[in-house]
Design a protein that fits this description.
Blueprint (H helix, E strand, L loop, with lengths): L1 H4 L3 E5 L8 H11 L5 E5 L5 E2 L2 E2 L13 E4 L3 H13 L4 E4 L10 H13 L3 E3 L5 E4 L4 E4 L7 E8 L2 H13 L4 E6 L8 H8 L7 E6 L5 H11 L5 E5 L4 H11 L6 H11 L2 E2 L3 H13 L8 E5 L2 H13 L8 H8 L13 E2 L6 H13 L5 E7 L6 H15 L5 E6 L2 H12 L4 E2 L2 H26 L10 H13 L7 H10 L7 E4 L2 H11 L3 E6 L12 E5 L2 H18 L7 E6 L5 E10 L3 E8 L4 H4 L2 E5 L4 H9 L4 H5 L9 H17 L3 E11 L6 E3 L2 E5 L1
Parallel strand pairs: 1-2, 1-5, 5-6, 6-7, 10-11, 10-12, 12-13, 13-14, 15-16, 15-17, 17-18, 18-19
Antiparallel strand pairs: 3-4, 8-9, 8-11, 20-23, 21-22, 21-23, 24-25, 24-27, 25-26, 27-28, 27-29
Helix pairs in contact: 6-7, 7-9, 10-16, 11-16, 13-14, 14-15, 17-18, 19-20
Bound molecules: acetyl coenzyme *A.
Length: 700
């Protein structure tokens, strides 16, 4: 990959003299960016372009070529690739459109196979090219002017990528690289990130994605990468309509958005919701030091902005330092007696920039304070003239000590001054939400690193004994029966084979058996119909709960048969299940399914009949360990119920984790299973464990 980002020579096949053609722009950009290697324009007409000799064929070039940018019409691309193979080119950047994104998948795959067979890797097709700061190489047809810096951008959308070059220029954000991946026919985000985490110039990685291909590999690369560098992602297709547009646009199916979001969280990736937000985060993370502790102070001359910032801090998970004694000592000299040393620290409307300076320096010097939010409203003393010099001085002397963000509200003079400061790299924003958001992402990254360190030090094995052979036998018999689901008793058998705790139960086929088995199980019991023709048992009157004695069992047996025959006279009835009636517990849900983008994915959340309405659920790829599963459980809004409220004891968290692990093992070991759902899984106190009440299993 180093050769892709630092090629010693680049050929442009389809180079053109005609201004305005893509093949001309790329040559101009290569020259303007100061690329030091050899540039070889290739065009069947020969001649000269920008004083460079043009070769009629790549085979006429004497020296080796590391990268060939192909910018000829679709019908000539394969021939060009073949010529590159003959020339032993290492990387191809195929700009040309008209491949899998418009349905020409076979043609695309044919080219990739040929290229790979001949030792070449492909970027694209359907891309705008690649810029790499370390090689001073702008092999794109985007803007010529790119500021080198620490942000690496990988973009699936070409047009948006080109626009982002302009936007980063405007925002004074330096790029380590920008790579357009287009159809991702060969090289994808994972390949590029693997290089970027080792590249010294790259400080932050930003990806714009439309769909995920090879998600299982992406997860493993991201998990490794976020331990080393922050990664920010924007994924379009959050709405159902957006997902459809993305799918048709890129030729790759966008995964369900909730799953994507949760898996990015699992990998330690920060998901931004707008380009502006992502670029703000990139700029802040490349220009600021990381926090070394959780204590933040707000310094302000106005109560209103202080309160707004306090709200924003809560939203972004920023901890406001609240040791009033320490605050009093730290700021006794810099806060006037009529101000407030609480947090927010209010140096009052009479504060000058000198007063700000003293207070900010006190915060920088205090070891218990780890980061600062500096806010202000324009006054006659705090104005455009006084703002700039002080903030610039503080930034120059202190910005590498602790993280700080600034936000000032005022008129034109203040706004202009803030623009100058921003251009000089000061993290200053007219919107305090933006300022707090940037510090928030820095904390998210800090905590990610902490969690990952904890994670590494945990014993987080996910071993469990699951009888896969028996499970496959159960699936086999359902398949023989031409069903794509398991019956209740089969589901229970399968869970038993995995060692998932179930209520005691048995399927009976006569009234006499029902009476004797209910006695064996112990009252109260539950009775349910078992029939492949009746899936919604309650709707059919096929479930009766809380049967306390023999007589109630006799009545229920007859009632269930009567109801079900009436509901579906042709239903083939296998029997009636008699099960232990469980005492109430906390209802949770564990689901598992094969996700088209990410492979086996597990869901956990609040269970019961209101699952769909409450939607207190989260997802993880089964590349987890016990520690990550515990993190998923803690994410639920209803997590406090599992901790125990109003004097209740904590529920059996390890029992829940064990079942999640087992469901994951079943899903990954039995590819015939597409969906597993345990709802509810009742969680009891630690001594009583958990019980899977109802199980639904779908097979291919
Ligand atoms: N070998 C060498 N040179 C060749 C060959 C060949 N086999 N075939 C053609 N050429 C030359 C042509 O003579 C021409 O040069 P000239 O101007 O000196 O005559 C040059 O290569 C280009 O060929 P044209 O036929 O003029 O093609 P054109 O430049 O119009 O289009 C392109 C080619 C740009 C690759 C087009 O087919 C295409 O795919 N455009 C879309 C590109 C795109 O949008 N990519 C996604 C980017 S991301 C985004 O969305 C912004």
């Amino acid at each position: 990959m180093k050769r892709l980002f630092n090629p010693e020579s680049v050929a442009i096949i389809g180079a053109s003299r005609a201004a305005g053609k893509i093949g001309n722009s790329i040559i101009c950009n290569m020259i303007a960016s100061g690329y030091k290697g050899n540039i070889y324009p290739i065009n069947k007409h020969g001649g000269e372009i920008c004083n460079l000799p043009v070769y009629k064929s790549i085979l006429d070039v004497e020296k080796d070529i590391d990268l060939a940018t192909i910018v000829v019409p679709f019908k000539y691309v394969f021939d060009s690739v073949k010529a590159c193979a003959q020339k032993k080119v290492k990387f191809l950047s195929i700009i040309t459109s008209g491949f899998s994104e418009v349905g020409k998948t076979v043609e695309e795959q044919e080219i990739v196979k040929f290229a790979n067979d001949h030792g070449m890797r492909i970027l694209g097709p359907n891309i705008f090219g690649i810029y790499s700061a370390s090689a001073s190489m702008n092999a794109t047809f985007g803007p010529a002017d790119i500021k080198p810096g620490g942000v690496a951008i990988i973009t699936q959308s070409g047009a948006l990528g080109i626009a982002m070059i302009g936007k980063t220029q405007m925002e004074n954000i330096g790029l380590a690289s920008i790579v357009s991946v287009g159809n991702k026919s060969d090289l994808d985000e994972s390949d590029l990130i693997e290089y970027m985490i080792k590249d010294d110039q790259t400080k932050v990685i930003f990806m714009y994605m439309e769909g995920v291909k090879n998600g299982e590999r992406l997860i493993s690369v991201l998990k490794k990468a976020t331990r080393i560098k922050p990664i920010i992602v924007i994924k379009s297709g959050r709405s159902k309509r957006g997902a459809m547009a993305a799918a048709s646009h890129t030729g790759s199916l966008a995964g369900a958005d909730e799953v994507f979001s949760d898996i990015m969280k699992q990998c330690g990736v920060h998901r931004a919701h707008s380009i502006q937000q992502a670029l703000d985060w990139c700029k802040y993370l490349t220009g600021s030091v990381a926090p070394r502790g959780e204590n933040t102070v707000i310094i302000t001359n106005g109560g209103g902005v202080g309160v707004l910032a306090t709200d924003a801090c809560e939203e972004h998970g920023i901890h406001l330092f609240d040791d009033i004694e320490v605050m009093r000592t730290a700021f006794s000299k810099s806060v006037p007696s009529f101000g407030s040393v609480g947090n927010p620290i209010d140096i009052t409307g009479g504060a000058s920039m000198d007063d700000y300076e003293k207070c900010i320096i006190d915060a920088f010097n205090h070891p218990s304070i780890h980061s600062i939010i500096c806010l202000g409203c324009e006054t006659s003393i705090l104005n455009g003239k006084t703002l700039g010099p002080t903030i610039r001085k503080i930034h120059d002397n202190y910005h590498s000590i602790k993280p700080i963000v600034y936000s000032f509200v005022g008129g034109k003079d203040i706004e202009n001054e803030m623009d100058y400061l921003k251009a000089d790299g000061v993290p200053i924003y007219s919107d305090l939400e933006q300022a707090v958001g940037c510090l928030g992402i820095s904390y998210e990254n800090y905590r990610n690193q902490m969690v990952l360190k904890d994670d590494d030090s945990q014993n987080s094995s996910i071993d469990a004994i699951v009888d896969i052979k028996k499970i496959n036998k159960i699936i086999g018999s359902a398949k023989k029966d031409k069903r794509n689901f398991l019956l209740a008793d089969e589901g229970q058998e399968l869970m038993k084979a995995a060692g998932v705790p179930m209520p005691k139960s048995v399927v009976v086929s006569s009234l006499k058996e029902a009476v004797s088995q209910s006695g064996n199980i112990g009252f109260p019991v539950v009775m349910k119909i078992v029939s492949k023709d009746i899936l919604h048992k309650s709707d059919a009157g096929g479930v009766i709960l809380d049967l306390k004695n023999k007589n109630e069992v006799i009545d229920a047996y007859e009632a269930i048969l009567f109801n079900c025959k009436k509901y579906n006279p042709r239903a083939k009835i296998k029997g009636i299940e008699i099960a232990e009636m469980l005492k109430p517990g906390i209802e949770t849900i564990i689901g598992g399914r094969y996700d088209n983008s990410f492979g086996p994915v597990i869901m956990f959340g609040q269970g019961g009949i209101y699952v769909e309405v409450i939607r207190d659920i989260s997802f993880r790829s089964i590349t987890y360990n016990r520690f990550e599963i515990a993190g998923m459980i803690k994410e639920m809004n209803t997590y406090p119920l599992l901790l125990g409220v109003r004097g209740e004891s904590q529920k059996d968290m390890n029992g829940i984790i064990d079942v999640i692990i087992k469901v994951g093992i079943i899903l990954s070991s039995c590819p015939e299973i597409t969906d597993i759902e345990i709802n509810p899984l009742l969680a009891y106190d630690e001594d009583d464990g958990v019980r899977a009440v109802d199980v639904r299993i779908l097979i291919k």
